[in-house]
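BUG-371 | component: ligand-complex export | severity: low

The export step for 6-O-phosphono-beta-D-glucopyranose jobs runs without errors, but we want the raw record kept on the ticket for reference. Input record follows.
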Amino acid sequence: NKGHYEHYMQKEINEQPESLTTTMRGRLILRGSSKSKSVLLGGLKDHLKTIRRSRRILFIGCGTSYNAALAARPILEELTGIPVTMEIASDLLDRQGPIYREDTAVFVSQSGETHDTLVALQYALDNGALCVGITNTVGSAIARNTHCGVHINAGAEIGVASTKAYTSQIVVMAMLALAIGGDTLSNQARREAIIDGLFDLPNKVREVLKLDQEMKDLAKLLSAEQSLLVFGRGYNYATALEGALKVKEVALMHSEGILAGEMKHGPLALVDETLPIVVIATRDACFSKQQSVIQQLIARRGRLVVMCSKGDASSVSPSETVRVIEVPQVEDCLQPVINVVPLQLLAYHLTVLRGFNVDQPRNLAKSVTTQ
Ligand code: UD1
Ligand code: BG6
C-alpha cells in the first residue's frame, strides 16, 4: 500500500523517521538513577566477548548493504580498536580471500537472501569465523545460518532501490560499534554524544526531508545530463558511493561516487564547466580538506553542487556559481544517515522527470538469488 505516495521509493524515503525509530526501539537504554546511557542488542549479548577478542572484523555485502557497512566502518574502528576490512561478497569469493577462526565476519543484507552474500557466509562458516548477520528479514537464509545477529526492523522494503534499509543498517552498525566498544572512562563523552544523537536522529531526518522541493528543482536542472559525479571522504565516502548508486540504478544516468582524496589521481581530468559534480562537505574532521577540494574544483571551472552543514553556505561557496544544499548537522558518525536523504530525493525526482520506472528499474531485481 503506497498510501498517498506515487511510488514505493518515495514512500520509503519519507518514512525514514519512523523506520529509524523502529530500528532503535528497545535498544537504547537509560540505566539507573544516573540515567547512564547504553545500547542493548539482544541478538548479540551472548557473543560480545568473543567479538571483542577477534583479531579482525570483516564486513561483507553487496550493493547498498555494502555501502552501509562502509559508512559505519570508521566508527567501528574508532570505538573498538579492531581492524575492520570491507568485502564485496563476490570479490571475496573470486579471490578466495583468507578468513580465520579469529575473525568476526558480519554479513549485511536487507533481504537476507542475496546469493553472493550467502555463498560468502558458507565460506566464512567453513573457515571457522564467527558469523554475524545484519538483516531486515526475520527467517531469511542469512538470519538462519549466522551464529547471531541483529534484525534492522525497518519494515518491508518494496522499491528495488534500497533507501530506508540503508539508513537503518547504518544505525544498527553504529549501535554495534557502541555495543562492542567497551564503556571506558575515556570514551564516555563520545558514547553519550552518539547515543543522544541516535535519539534525536529521526527528528533530524524529518528536517532534511523538507529539502524535497529543492531537490526536485535541482533534478530539473540536471535531468538532461549524461553523467553526475559525487565526491565524499571519511564518514561520507559511503554517501558518495550510495548517492551515485541511487542515481545510476533508478534514474539510469551514469554516476560515480569518488573518494575526494583520490581527486588528483585521475578524476580531476574529467572536470570542466559542463559536468555536474556534487561535493559533500558537512562539518567533521575532514571539513578543511573538503574546502580545499572545492577551491580546486572551482579553479578548474567545475560545475558544483555542495552539500554542507546549516550555516556553512558562505564557507563552502566563495562564488555565486556554486549551488548549495544545507543539511542539519548531527554527530559526525551519524551524518551519513542525514546526507544520503537529499541524494535519495534527487535520484527519485530525476527518475520521474526522465520518465523511467521508479520501483522496478530495468534489468534489476530486489534480491539477486542466483549466480
Ligand atoms: C527479540 C525479538 C523481538 C522482541 C525482542 C524482545 C525476534 C525476531 N525478535 O529482538 O520480537 O521484541 O527480542 O526482547 O523474535 N539473528 C541471527 N542472525 C541475524 C539476525 C538475527 O542469528 O542475521 C538472531 C539473533 O542473534 C537473535 C535472534 O535472531 O538470537 C533475534 O534477533 P533480533 O530480532 O535482532 O533480537 P532482539 O532485538 O533481541
Ligand atoms: C540488489 C538490489 O542488487 O541487491 C540492491 O537491487 C541491493 O538494492 C543489493 O542493495 C543487495 O541486496 P541485499 O538484500 O543483500 O541487501
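Assignee comment: Attached the raw record above. The longest helix spans residues 188-208.
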